[in-house]
Design a protein that fits this description.
- The protein is of the alpha/beta class.
- It has eight helices and eight strands.
- The strands form two sheets. It has a six-stranded parallel beta sheet with strand order 3-8-7-4-6-5, sandwiched between helices. Strands 1-2 form a two-stranded parallel ribbon.
- Strand 5, helix 5 and strand 6 form a beta-alpha-beta unit.
- The chain starts with 6 loop residues before the first strand and ends in a 17-residue tail after the last helix.
């Protein structure tokens, strides 16, 4: 409890669901709230465009940061090899995102078969906190070449030596999640790459639209345009639906 609370700052607003926000409002209704996000959720963006919220936009990228090269293709091991090998040739490390704990170990075997001479470490949100932290730190200290992980790394990973990220089953992610994930790389002045792999042969129109959009908006200050496109792609009734503003990850 706070003696005299007047200001609340919410970082990564898209990670807070509607129920969480309602609890905040009930806690104390007369506080000022500053919400920050690189990818505002459709509900919040719609409120800002309707003048129900004030909104400020920062479009100045960090000095020396380059645009990201985003590539979409069907899943195949040859493409994975090419993407990773390009990074290894410049002594870099790689993120490989697979957001399913139940079969993440299967992909660990695939990666090790493609690069038997490289060290791979696997992380996910069901690991004990200390073990998860240890694996992340070991990867940061370059004890491993590849970090295979769920989206548990989405918000708090910042390694300058990792400039290639591979996202598996990209058709299952929302635009905001892909954009947040690909910003885990490119934290230096090196050229950075994001490879999006899909598995389904018959993608839904909405999935195709999302993949096309994430490639089109690959420049550094594209977050607002992405959020607007996200608002356009999703059904209008999701603006008031709990699901659109809170995402459960494994």
């Amino acid at each position: 409890e706070y003696k005299d609370l007047w200001l609340m700052v919410i970082d990564e607003e898209h990670k807070f669901g509607s129920l969480d926000k309602e609890k905040i409002k009930k806690y104390k209704s007369n506080i000022d709230i500053l919400s920050m996000s690189a990818t505002p959720i459709p509900r919040s963006l719609n409120m800002a465009l309707s003048s129900l919220r004030d909104m400020s936009i920062i479009k100045t990228p960090p000095y020396g940061r380059q645009n990201i090269s985003t590539v979409v293709s069907a899943f195949n091991e040859n493409s994975i090899f090419d993407a990773m090998n390009r990074e290894f040739e410049r002594w870099g490390q790689v993120f490989f995102i697979h957001n399913r704990v139940r079969n993440i170990w299967h992909f660990e075997k695939i990666i090790k078969s493609i690069f038997p001479n490289k060290k791979t470490i696997t992380t996910h949100g069901q690991l004990p906190g200390q073990e998860l932290e240890k694996r992340i730190i070991d990867f940061k200290h370059k004890k491993y070449d590849i970090l295979l992980s769920t989206t548990v790394i989405e918000n708090w990973i910042d390694f300058s030596n990792v400039n290639t990220i591979i996202i598996n089953d990209a058709e299952t992610f929302w635009l905001s999640t892909i954009h947040q994930l690909r910003w885990r790389v490119g934290r230096s002045d090196r050229k950075w790459y994001c490879h999006l792999f899909y598995k389904r042969q018959n993608l839904k129109k909405e999935q195709v639209d999302r993949l096309k959009t994430i490639v089109e908006y690959s420049y550094l200050w594209a977050w607002f345009e992405l959020a607007m496109k996200d608002l356009e792609i999703r059904w209008w009734w999701e603006l008031l639906w709990i699901k659109q503003s809170g995402q459960a990850t494994e």
